[in-house]
Design a protein that fits this description.
There is one protein chain. The protein is an alpha+beta fold. It is about 55% helix and about 10% strand. An eight-stranded antiparallel beta sheet has the order 10-11-13-12-16-17-15-14, with helices on both faces. A hairpin with a 7-residue loop joins strand 14 and strand 15 (about 850-855). Helix 12 (about 275-300) crosses helix 13 (about 310-320).
């Protein structure tokens, strides 16, 4: 029993004064002798106070030195000492055994994340109490005393009590327990008991099972990434479980520990898994991710792992980032985050390659399948090249110096892999990354290198190959402007991915558009077949470059056009094509803006747009680019309504450009839309169908997609049969994450404002709205609101509440301003800043004044705007509502009360001033006139 460790370590440490605190516990034990419960409670209070103080010091040190790993080690040390003090108190004061039997032994062991010796401020503690064989009353009492005190301190503790035999048996059958024991660390108690567990675990569990463990851990990693969101470049990443996060580094180390039997990360160097530079990268990534994670926990006060928008700026400031021209502090911090996540991915690939060479990890599924179809020789020359070989269906280097010998090979390797449908060998990718300094001006200007690059961009699987070029750093070195936007995030809710990831996804969607067969892209696919053959390369390079100048002080469309003018001649484009690419980049937002925020039935909108696009060919290319761009922003952003708006804008503008614009031409298109509806909707007799078609104005037939027209027809008939004064139909759009309310009611000057107010009162944020009036004076409005509940039934109930509120307001039973004001009072402020803008323009319409409003979106904003516009004695003829993440862009076509445009500069200035004031002040909830 000499091996029993009962006392905490006596050395005084500035992180936690163990001798002083142990003495204080001893004093409490003497003071409350014979009153166990009082002693336990007093000890828990004392240790909790000491722990809070130690954590406060840890946070202060972290803010000063910004060293996350050191902070995690410090917090872990504090926790270790608390557990040692508790064990000492339990065995000396509470359950002292004067003559301990052989069964009255225990080792207290840290497992899991805590076992690594690193701990985030709000992390759980995982403990294993190891017993020699079966549980005894003494063992149970000591474990309970420690656990209850930790729980009384407010800590989250996971625990297990097992004998060595039981631990080994369970580890064999359960991969989670096996991983936990792999990471054990002795804390206090009986050291030989712990040593026995480690020795037997190594001999009886680990030996001979490396391949099984590696396969299980990599499968677990894939599943975790799938749950957290597959892309490494999601703009609200999960620091612990996301791709490129801490858990990926842990998985690397678990695998290395298991396969190479190492205890410390620096031993990976000795085994040749990483070289010195890669090991430094490993340490640097871990340090950075721990800094971020510790700061998130301290800032949020909970075990929060997602780096959400509302804390990104605070963490950036804590880590010392500052703003630069064109890039905010938060954007610079997040760029660093994504570069680290990329490095973690590279390290994973390196370890997997090493394991594969040693047969610890099964070869890729694809190569196992191909092996059955191909000759047994696994290494052979790549067709058309002596510099590369095929190794298990992956491209590899024939000799280590092929890049030095011919730097064009740095581009050629990617083209050959693409051409021969080969995966990339990790060793080849490692050598590519180490050879980036060979990509100099000479290689960038090399005609063969540029030709190969354009072949990669315009051939099958371009997105996959370009992503590998980006991950190795080749793409950013070959096109230096691209290198500047690698891992750059935009601090807004509209873009789901970093800029480089967005551009690569757009190229992938462009290939989908070209392949055809996808109903999402019918118009764009049709136009892709009709563009001039020489413009195929133009649209591909434009798609890759359209956001290349993000993060610069200058407008990114204008700056991007300048980049294209410098770059495209080098890639083999003529002067005319270079100018066309520059024009497309400069105008790449125009079509989306006009389609979503202008009245497409207004002749002036179409004429103005035609003046910008100049020719049908340019408009075809712009339509294709706009489709790929919106689709590449993120899930749910592209939808049938936006597709229909682009289609309407294209087909309304085409006759103007060909000189064939006339009301006859337009009438034909309306007739085609109506006959499409007749053909698809055969439920009604002809007379009823004719009467229904006559109820809608021409703009309705051009702007609404067919499926929605059919839903509207059924909805209107059902509403009128039920004699509803106001009817609401609820639909759910899963892809966009919105609930759609279609409202059919008698038209009313305040109707849009009332609908918006009712939505605001229910806490529903309007993301877009389609507003139509029938020829018999009824309003047919479709409002899309952000989902609040996961279940459709709950969303349906909320929609019903909104409908009842609209009805009550129309009948005078309810006054909206008070309800909206109450709802607005408890709202959280948003982490974003959007400069309010108001533009008043008479050139966009011959009949109406167009007011364009842009600012930070918030619940109730549309209600406030429509109410304010009505109070300014303006009539709203049509409204075009859109949100781009946190930015609202609403456009109103208005007249004065006599139906005239607003021409007086003083009146325009007053309108602008009132609306800017409203946008800038969240508290200002407009009051209706009556």
């Amino acid at each position: 029993m000499d091996n029993l460790v009962t006392q905490p370590r006596p050395d005084i440490d500035d992180r936690f004064d163990t001798p002083r605190i142990t003495a204080a516990v001893d004093e409490l034990a003497a003071k409350h002798a014979g009153r166990e419960d009082v002693f336990r409670s007093a000890m828990a209070q004392l240790l909790k106070a000491e722990m809070i103080e130690a954590r406060a010091v840890a946070q202060a040190v972290l803010l000063k030195d910004r060293h996350g790993r050191r902070c995690a080690e410090r917090l872990c040390f504090v926790q270790d000492e608390i557990i040692r003090i508790l064990y000492s108190a339990a065995t000396r004061h509470l359950y002292r055994s004067p003559v301990p039997s052989g069964a009255e032994r225990m080792a207290v062991v840290a497992t899991g994340g805590y076992g690594r010796g690193l701990m985030a401020p709000e992390s759980d503690i995982d403990l294993l109490f190891i017993l020699p064989y079966k549980q005894t009353a003494w063992g149970e009492q000591v474990a309970e005393a420690i656990l209850y005190c930790l729980w009384d301190m407010g800590l989250k503790v996971g625990h297990a009590t097992r004998s060595v035999d039981e631990s080994i048996r369970q580890a064999r059958g359960d991969m989670t327990i096996r991983t936990a024991i792999l990471e054990t660390r002795f804390l206090t108690g009986d050291q030989p008991l712990y040593d026995e567990l480690v020795e037997r675990f190594d001999k009886e569990v680990v030996q001979g099972t490396a391949a099984e463990f590696v396969t299980a851990k990599l499968a677990e990693r894939e599943e975790r990434h799938r749950r957290a969101g597959q892309s490494r470049y999601l703009v609200e990443p999960n620091v612990k479980d996301g791709k490129g996060g801490l858990r990926d580094l842990h998985t690397l180390f678990w695998i290395a520990k298991y396969v190479y039997r190492v205890r410390e990360t620096d031993e990976l160097l000795e085994h040749g898994v990483f070289d010195a530079q890669e090991y430094r990268t490993f340490r640097r990534c871990a340090d950075f991710l721990w800094s971020v994670r510790c700061n998130i926990h301290f800032f949020s006060g909970r075990a929060e792992e997602r780096l959400s928008f509302d804390m990104q700026r605070e963490i950036a400031i804590r880590l010392g980032y500052t703003s630069h021209p064109g890039m905010q502090d938060v954007e610079r911090f997040m760029k660093h985050y994504f570069l680290v996540a990329k490095d973690v991915g590279d390290l994973t690939a390196i370890l997997c390659a090493k394991l594969e060479d040693q047969q610890a990890k099964p070869a890729p599924v694809l190569s196992r399948m191909m092996a059955r179809l191909r000759p047994s020789n696994n290494r052979r020359r790549v067709p058309d090249s002596d510099d590369f070989i095929i190794d298990h269906n992956r491209i590899n280097l024939a000799a280590p110096d092929i890049f030095k010998h011919d730097p064009v090979n740095l581009i050629r390797i990617f083209r050959l892999a693409q051409k021969n449908n080969l995966a990339f060998h990790p060793d080849a990718m490692r050598t590519v990354t180490r050879s980036l300094k060979l990509i100099n001006t000479q290689l960038r200007e090399n005609p063969e290198a540029n030709r190969l690059f354009m072949e990669i961009l315009t051939s099958n699987d371009a997105e996959i190959v370009l992503r590998r070029m980006n991950e190795t750093g080749v793409l950013g070195h070959f096109i230096r402007a691209f290198g500047k936007i690698v891992s750059m995030m935009q601090f807004n809710m509209y873009h789901h991915y970093t800029v480089d990831e967005h551009l690569l996804r757009c190229v992938g969607y462009l290939q989908d558009i070209e392949r055809g067969g996808n109903d999402e892209f019918t118009v764009a696919s049709d136009l892709m077949r009709k563009i001039q053959p020489e413009h195929r390369a133009v649209i591909y390079i434009t798609t890759l470059l359209h956001d290349i100048a993000k993060g610069r002080p200058e407008d990114h469309s204008i700056a991007g056009a300048k980049v294209a003018r410098r770059l495209c001649p080098r890639l083999g484009f003529s002067a005319a094509d270079t100018e066309l690419i520059a024009w497309l980049i400069e105008q790449h937002l125009t079509m989306s803006t006009v389609a979503q925020s202008r009245d497409l039935s207004d002749r002036k909108t179409i004429e103005n747009f035609a003046a910008v696009v100049q020719s049908v060919e340019q408009m075809k290319l712009l339509t294709i680019l706009t489709t790929a761009d919106i689709r590449g922003v993120g899930p749910g952003v592209w939808n049938g309504w936006k597709a229909q708006l682009l289609r309407t804008l294209y087909y309304e503008t085409e006759p103007v450009l060909t000189g064939g614009f006339s009301e006859v031409n337009r009438a034909q298109r309306i007739a085609v839309a109506q006959s499409e509806f007749r053909a698809a909707f055969t439920e009604w007799p002809e007379a009823e169908l004719n009467a229904y078609i006559g109820r809608h104005y021409p703009a309705y037939w051009l702007k609404v997609e067919l499926a929605r027209k059919i839903r509207h027809a059924r909805f209107l008939k059902a509403s009128e049969q039920a004699e509803h004064k106001l009817a609401i139909n609820v639909g759910f759009d899963e892809a966009r994450g919105v609930t759609e309310l279609t409202i059919f009611a008698a038209d009313h000057p305040w109707l849009l404002s009332i609908i918006a107010g009712a939505c605001a009162s229910a806490g529903a944020n309007i993301v877009d709205a389609q507003i139509y009036t029938t020829t018999d004076g009824r309003a047919l409005d479709t409002i899309a609101i952000s989902r609040e509940y996961d279940r459709d039934e709950d969303e349906g109930r909320r929609a019903t509440r909104i409908g009842e509120m609209i009805e009550d307001v129309l009948e005078g039973k309810l006054r909206l301003p008070e309800v909206v004001a109450r709802r607005a009072a408890g709202r959280k402020t948003r982490p974003f800043v959007v400069e309010p803008e108001v533009t008043i323009n008479n050139q966009w319409s011959d009949r109406y004044t167009v007011i364009e409003v842009s600012g930070l979106d918030r619940p109730g904003l549309l209600y406030q705007l429509t109410t304010a516009i009505s109070k300014l004695n303006l009539n709203i003829a049509s409204a075009h509502v859109a949100t781009f993440g946190e930015r609202a862009r609403d456009v109103f076509y208005v007249t004065d009360l006599l139906g005239a445009q607003i021409n007086a500069p003083t009146r325009q200035a007053a309108i602008k001033s009132a609306l800017i004031h409203l946008l800038a002040n969240e508290e200002s909830v407009a009051q209706p006139a009556a």
